[in-house]
Automatic annotation (TrEMBL):
It comes from Microbacterium nanhaiense. This is Lipase. Residues 8-182 form the SGNH hydrolase-type esterase domain. PANTHER family: GDSL-LIKE LIPASE/ACYLHYDROLASE, PUTATIVE (AFU_ORTHOLOGUE AFUA_2G00820)-RELATED, GDSL-LIKE LIPASE_ACYLHYDROLASE, PUTATIVE (AFU_ORTHOLOGUE AFUA_2G00820)-RELATED. Signal peptide: none annotated. CDD domains: SGNH_hydrolase_like_1. Gene3D superfamilies: SGNH hydrolase.
Length: 250
């Protein structure tokens, strides 16, 4: 048995949306962290990813946490709240409660929690000031509530000013591209005390150019609004990409 069994839960950020392989499947920072972890250790790691795009914080906890713990991991990463912040009437303390629940259940099961704050996309989005304000408040609230709790691996990306650069974001302006996901993976590995592969903190610029305002609203904002009005989610009907352990070789 390998020494590291890492499972990730969350939404599109953890699923890897925005960093797609040639075949269209998402890769993302969690996949990259598992690969970098194996390379740093010089041994295979076991990796699972139960994240599904579009999920709010508590549906992630209710639908993914116990299934993830049942796999018997050594480490579990969690991020949530990004989709909540895009909706009116967001209760930030309720989101903080989700982080506290994940930490508690990990502690009860002898699992090391890796808690992430996502990167800040607000500069490219409508209602940017509101989203930035909510993200600042959520990041502060989570870290304040759990700052005295030992054994947490923190990977806080929201306060990384470099990640606000459009060059780290995909054309939808909401999800990071490969460059952004590599930087987040680098932060996770660094927080774990592992070696970060060369160049991951700041890959050369790449990816598709961002759309102009009119095309952006047509291609990305309008479909999002339609899903909200119809009560649908981008994750409806999707299964986890790695619902069971896969082996990641060094």
């Amino acid at each position: 048995m390998t020494s590291v069994r890492y499972v990730a839960i969350g939404d599109s950020f953890t699923e890897g949306v925005g960093d797609e392989r040639v075949d269209g499947t998402p890769r993302g920072w969690a996949d990259l962290a598992a690969e970098g972890w194996a390379a740093s250790l010089g041994e295979s790691t076991e990796y699972a990813n139960l994240a599904i795009r579009g999920k709010l914080a508590w549906p992630v906890v209710d639908g993914q946490l116990e299934a993830a713990l049942a796999l018997g991991p050594t480490h579990l990463s969690f991020n949530g709240g990004g989709n909540d912040m895009l909706r009116p009437g967001t209760d930030l303390e309720r989101i903080v409660d989700a982080f506290v629940t994940v930490e508690r259940r990990c502690r009860e099961n002898g699992v090391t929690p890796i808690l992430l704050a996502g990167a800040d996309p607000s500069g490219g989005l409508p209602m940017s000031k509101l989203i930035r304000r909510r993200g600042d408040a959520l990041t502060a609230a989570v870290t304040n509530r759990l700052r005295r709790t030992e054994g947490i691996v923190w990977a806080v990306n929201w306060t990384d000013a470099a990640l606000r650069d459009p060059a780290f974001w995909s054309p939808d302006r909401l999800h990071m591209n490969a460059r952004g996901h590599h930087r987040v993976a680098a932060r996770v590995l660094d927080a774990l005390g592992q070696r970060v592969p060369e160049g991951w903190w700041d890959l050369p610029e790449q990816g598709q150019p961002h759309l102009g305002t009119r095309d952006y609203y047509r291609d990305h904002v309008a479909p999002w609004v339609k899903r909200r009005l119809t009560g649908r989610s981008s994750g409806d009907g999707r299964a986890p990409k790695y619902g069971e352990w896969i082996t990641v070789a060094p």
